[in-house]
Every structure is written in C-alpha cells, then in structure tokens.
Amino acid sequence: MRNKPMNIRTFIACDKPYEDADIVIFGVPFDGTTSFRPGTRFAMQAIRNDSYGLETYSPYLDKDLEETAVYDGGDLDLPFGNTEKIMDLIYEYSQEVLADGKKFLMVGGEHLASLSTIQAAYEKYPNLHLIHIDAHTDLRENYIGEKLSHASVIRNCHEFLGDGRIFQFGIRSGLKEEFQWAREHTYLEKFTLNTFGEKMKELANVPVYITIDLDVLDPGVFPGTGTPEPGGITYRELLEALGHMQQLNNIVASDVVELSPPYDPTGASTAVACKTVREMLLILNED
Predict the structure, then answer these.
(1) 28-49: per-residue pLDDT in tens?
(2) Is residue 105 helix, strand or coil?
(3) d(Cα 133, Cα 209) in Å, to the nearest integer?
(4) In what order do the strands lie in the sheet with 23-28?
(5) Is residue 284 part of a domain?
(6) Of 20, 52, 76, 200, whose Cβ has the fewest other Cβ atoms within 10 Å?
(7) What span, in angstroms and rounded, lies between the C-alpha atoms of 9 and 73?
(8) Using an 8 Å Cβ cutoff, are 227 and 40 in contact?
(9) CB 227 within 8 A of CB 218
(10) CATH number at residue 65
(11) CA atoms within 13 A on the CB side of 114
(12) With 60 as the cut, is the pLDDT of residue 272 above it?
C-alpha cells in the first residue's frame, strides 16, 4: 500500500494480514490544530499497549474479536507542521482501504483528522450520513481565521454532505452562532443521547459513518482529553448508544478521537478508549 503505516504493535486480536482482513484499524498521531491541551498524538500507542488488559470478548454485544478479521495498520507516518499535507495523507490511506473493499476504524489524534476519513467515505458512498457524538458542535466556519481546525471539522463536512445528513448528539459546548446554524442544517440533540435509538432506526438502511469524540463523556469519567467539558454523559450511556448502532445495516467506516493520555496518569481514560475501540470494531464487523 502507498504510505504504509509504521506498525509497532497491534491492538489486541487485530493481527490478520491486510489481504485477509475485512476491517482495518489505524492510528493518526496528529494534534496540530488542538486549541487548548495537546497530546492526542500519543493516543493510539497508549491504546494498543493497554488493549492487552482487555478481554477480546464483549459481554455487551456477545461478540469476540478473535472471530473477526481485523488488520492493524499501525500509525500513519505524518510530517510535522503541514496540516494540508497531513490531511491529504489521511485521505489517501482511507480511500485506498475503502477501494480494497474493506471498512476502517481510524483512531485519533484530534478531531480534524476525521474530515479526511469522512470525505473518503463520502466519495465512495455519495449518500453517506454522518453520526457525530461529541461535547462540541465543531460547526465554526473557522477558528481564529483557520478553516482547517478541530473546531470546524463538522462544518467542513457539511460542505459536501449538505443538509439532512448530519446527526449530532451529546453536544453541550459551542458558539451561539453554531447552535443557531445547526437549527437549519443538522439534527442536533443537546446534552444527551435520548433520541439516539430512534434516529438509528431511521438510518438503518443508508450508508453511515460514525465519529466519536470521547470528550462527550463527563470529565469525571474521561479526564484525559484536550478540551474537557463538565456535564457530559456516563460511559453506560455511551455503551447504550453503541448497542443502538447494531440497528444500522451499512456502517461503512468510523473513528474514535480525542484521547490525550498525558492528562490522565491513572490510565482510566485510556481504558475507556480501549473498550470503545473494541466495541466499535465488533459493531463494524456485524454487517
């Protein structure tokens, strides 16, 4: 493959050869537009290491990673200081995986990385719908004049997805203008995921991309992130949402972003991220 990632260690049970895999997991060690506390570039390394504290079996989904065909492609080898080039490299790798008939789970890294992976999925699946779980709207036109920013990633996605195809949940932070803009252009549920199951039924038969920013969780559950926002959901609520995703028949790709291990030396946040990654891999494997 072009731009083959540097593979150091695989996520638990994700050791199938690329040619035999149905799903590819890869890391994006990038936090170049982080506006508060950097450190998400270290997430995937920590997640891989700590994944060996997990069981491969999920009692929530009654499924086992040992029964899946997942290739861990390592982390993309990205340059420093050139955001546009980094975005191109993420896009090219994602596009190639999809062209080979595989699904992927991208692990960030900061949320801007999702723009490239979502764009690659949209180009293969023009009717793509986006499920966005996050504390933040991410709907700014720019952040201090910079359009390519983690604070504007979903607004950038709207430029190609358009109205009626972005569904946002757990949102509790953003500019007033972002919330006003969302009323006309996205489905946005503030604070909770109460309507999540209902919306999954509506999206059951369309191609779907799922992006999970882990700062949707309350900082008491998940302090290891760059922009913690009090008032978040519990991990049990996130697990319930993951269960509802089983209603979707065409999840084409997904990502889990914004773990910043340096801000939680207890390792609890990394454990949360590990379990979320395991569950998402199993959900991707379902259909």
Answers:
(1) 999 867 767 888 999 999 999 9
(2) strand
(3) 11
(4) 70-75, 23-28, 103-108, 251-257, 208-213, 129-133, 166-171, 187-190
(5) no
(6) 20
(7) 9
(8) no
(9) no
(10) 3.40.800.10
(11) 32
(12) yes
283 within a domain of the structure (yes/no): no
CB-based contact 56:13 (threshold 8 Å): yes
Tokens of 24: 């590819």
pLDDT-derived band at 287 (thresholds 50, 70, 90) equals low
Q: Are 27 and 45 within 8 A, CB to CB?
A: yes
Per the CB < 8 A criterion, the answer to whether 240 and 102 are in contact is no
| Alpha-carbon span 48 to 195, nearest angstrom | 32
C-alpha 139: how far from chain center: 16
User: Under a CB-based contact definition with an 8 Å cutoff, are residues 134 and 215 in contact?
Assistant: yes
How far apart are the C-alpha atoms of 11 and 235, rounded to whole Å?
A: 21
d(CA 57, CA 124): 31
Task: Round to whole Å and give the CA distance between 48 and 105.
Answer: 14
Distance, in Å, from the CA atom of 74 to the CA atom of 126, rounded to the nearest integer, reads: 28
Closest Cα to residue 178, out of 132, 149, 139? 139
- What the block records as the tokens of 165 is 């195809």
The total domain count for the chain is 1
Residue showing tokens 């029964």: 67
Domain, as residue range, for 182: 18-275
Among 75, 73, 74, 71, smallest CA distance to 16 is for 71
CA-to-CA distance for 6 and 64, rounded, in angstroms? 26
Please indicate, yes or no, if residue 98 is contained in any of the structural domains: yes
Confidence of residue 7 (pLDDT cuts 50, 70, 90): very low
Residues 60, 280 contacting (CB under 8 angstroms): no
Does 109 sit behind a cis peptide bond, omega within 30 degrees of 0 on the bond before it? yes
pTM of the model: 0.94
Strand 57-58, strand 63-64: pairing: antiparallel
**How many residues are listed for the chain in this entry?**
287
